[in-house]
Amino acid sequence: MTRQYKTLGEFIIENQDSFKYSSGELSRLLNGIRLAAKVVNHEVNKAGLVDIIGEAGDTNIQGENQQKLDVLANEKFIQTLKKREIVCGIASEEEDDFISINSFDNNHQNKYVVLIDPLDGSSNIDVNVSVGTIFSIYRRITPVGTPVSLEDFLQPGINQIAAGYIVYGTSTMLVYTTGDGVNGFTLNPALGTFYLSHPNMKFPETGKIYSVNEGNYVHFPQGVKDYIKYCQKEEDDRPYTSRYIGSLVSDFHRNMIKGGIYMYPKSSVASEGKLRLLYECNPMAFIAEQANGIASDGKGRIMEINPTELHQRVPFFCGSRKMVEKAEEFIRKYN
Ligand SMILES: O=P(O)(O)OC[C@H]1O[C@](O)(COP(=O)(O)O)[C@@H](O)[C@@H]1O
Ligand SMILES: [Mg+2]
Ligand SMILES: [Mg+2]
């Protein structure tokens, strides 16, 4: 007899009462993300066959050449969330500024803001390597009934009420937390349904995988260089294995299952690193912490950083507790 898996829809309903503000709104929002994930998954899976490969011809506010799939995924998530009557604002990697969304009755009754990285790992789209989507959800802090404002988005990660990612890989999975542990759901493409395949996901306390773009080694701070040398040294349970897919979501997902550390440090060519605090680092940090992992900027907790800009970047060290603590130890030696 095949094992009965709970569906994502059932799980969302069953768990909505454990949610602090449970009024069904977050469930509707998560269901919106579930729907958009399936739409984007459909496009990603046929990327080689239709004209969504390659550059879209524009650059985003970060000066990156937007890929066609970046733009398409951005449109699909924004359209789907707009229609759900619970979102008052959306910020996205692919949008210069936040988008204010007014409720149908035009008096700003919606309570949630969503920050998204619609397509993570853009450099891997054309070469058939796994990519993802990342989302972060907050309750607005400005009063309901007034237009959403920038301060609703510039909240520290500790204020997140939910966060998650979708990985479009050998299978498509949606992994999320509402502050009550981390659960992973695998899409059965034949049925178009997500099933609870990975309940209560946890980072192993330590691991043997380090993920960093070693091509930037010469530009890294000495502490980071020393930690990488430590990972490569033949001693105790080392050397560790180097694994770097170049898609944050995929590297994070593997390390959460097997144990490992992902690093995107600052460097002499990227003074604050590359990853964006609001829609990459904060959501992954929330998931990591809910799964007994750690997320740091090398000095302290990512989720305690007070954001100042929508697209600000921060150095990022995330994964198994003992490995991130060791990396911080090496970095602190030079502070
Ligand atoms: O090619 P690099 O410099 O190693 O950067 C790879 C990193 O950049 C990212 O692609 C940034 O994300 P986007 O693709 O969403 O811009 C991460 O997913 C990945 O870990
Ligand atoms: Mg990204
Ligand atoms: Mg992206």
Which topology of the largest domain does CATH recognise?
Fructose-1,6-Bisphosphatase, Chain A, domain 1
Q: Which small-molecule ligands are present, each listed once?
A: 1,6-di-O-phosphono-beta-D-fructofuranose, magnesium ion
Instruction: Write down the overall mean pLDDT.
Output: 93
Distance between the termini: 58 Å
What structural class results from the helix and strand content?
alpha+beta
Beta strands, count = 15
Structure characterization notes:
Helix 1 (8-15) runs antiparallel to helix 2 and helix 5 crosses helix 8. The strands form three sheets. Strands 4-3-5-6-7-8-9-10 form an eight-stranded mixed sheet, sandwiched between helices. A five-stranded mixed sheet has the order 12-11-13-15-14, with helices on both faces. It has two domains: 8-201, Fructose-1,6-Bisphosphatase, Chain A, domain 1; 209-333, D-Maltodextrin-Binding Protein, domain 2, CATH 3.40.190. It has helices spanning 8-15, 25-45, 68-82, 150-153, 222-232, 248-258, 277-290, 321-332, and strands at residues 55-59, 65-67, 87-92, 99-100, 112-120, 131-139, 162-168, 172-177, 182-188, 193-198, 209-211, 241-242, 261-264, 294-296, 316-319. It has 335 residues and is α+β, with helices and mostly antiparallel strands. 1,6-di-O-phosphono-beta-D-fructofuranose binds at residues 93, 117, 120-123, 213, 246-248, 274.
Compose a concise summary of this entry.
Helices cover 29% and strands 23% of the residues. The protein has 335 residues and is of the alpha+beta class.
